[in-house]
Amino acid sequence: MDLLNLGQLVNSYLVPFGLKVGIAIVIWVVGGIAINTIVKIMRRVLTARALEPTLVNYATSAAHVALRVLLIMAILEICGIPTTSFAALIGAVGVAIGVAWSGLLSNFAAGIFLVMLRPFKVGDYINAAGQTGTVTQIGLFVTTMLTDNNVRVIIGNNKLFSDTITNYSANPVRRADLRCQIAYGVDPAQAIALLLARVRAIPNVLDNPAPGVAILEFNASGTMLAIRVNALTANFGQVYNDTNNAIAETCAAAGWPAPATYQVSVAPAAVPPAVPARS
């Protein structure tokens, strides 16, 4: 009887359970290989479409996690474990995580939009959230910038996305606008000719659009001249600094006096003598 009961127990419970475990292991291995293959193909397709690398990582990671969850639920169904309670548990955990990590999730969502809308990319020189520098990394939750004084700044994506973003690297050409104040007695036409000739000789200044010097205004110190030069974005810093130096050198070489503010004093009007009243 004992052997008979043992055989019935093995045939009724252990063998079916062993088969289910074996099938689950096979499905896990085969499903894992299939998931890895699908993710690799997805990465190749997205990369071939020249999408942002960060967006490719987001998409492939999300697809990998989602497929793994579906694989686990399929294995649980095969083993006879109901997945309804499991799905409800996942939903409850998701709600709890969403409430506790609302700030992080907002940064995550902003990071997705930054990658999809692409207001800037890694290597761009931008101004945003009160910081100016070169973008070195666009992460899931934060963006890293390197400022001009070699300081690494980490900004939450939500703050970065909700602020005004100025991308200095978006266009291939940038224009530098500078001013030169000349004093009274200096011929504006001569000053324009000298400055224009000197500015054209600066390396990396573009001929198209051509540099320009014009009168901006007349003020109490004399004449204000406006100097405009264009350069490739990569050469903008050098051209901007060299143009400032060129203005100073031209003024010194021409011997122009330093501008001074002149004030004209107006004498008060004379009061007419009072007319005596007639009697």
Explain this structure to me?
This protein has 279 residues and is α+β, with helices and mostly antiparallel strands. The protein folds into 3 domains: 14-100, Helix Hairpins (Orthogonal Bundle), CATH 1.10.287; 117-167, SH3 type barrels, CATH 2.30.30.60; 173-254, Alpha-Beta Plaits, CATH 3.30.70.100. It has 7 helices and 8 strands. The strands form 2 sheets. It has a 5-stranded antiparallel beta sheet. Strand 7 and strand 8 (222-232) form a beta hairpin.
Taking all Cα atoms into account, the compactness measure Rg is: 37 Å
Count of spatially separate domains: 3
The H/E string reads HHHHEEEEHEEHEEH
Given the structure, what is the number of helices?
Answer: 7
Sum up the overall morphology in one term.
elongated
Percent strand: 15-25%
* CATH architecture term of the largest domain: Orthogonal Bundle
Order of the strands making up the biggest sheet: 4-3-2-1-5
Which structural class do you get from the secondary structure elements?
alpha+beta
CATH top level class name of the largest domain: Mainly Alpha
Task: Report the count of strand segments.
Answer: 8
Distance between the termini: 157 Å
Spans of at least 5 consecutive residues with low confidence: none
Helix content bin: 40-55%
Please give the largest β-sheet: 5 strands, antiparallel
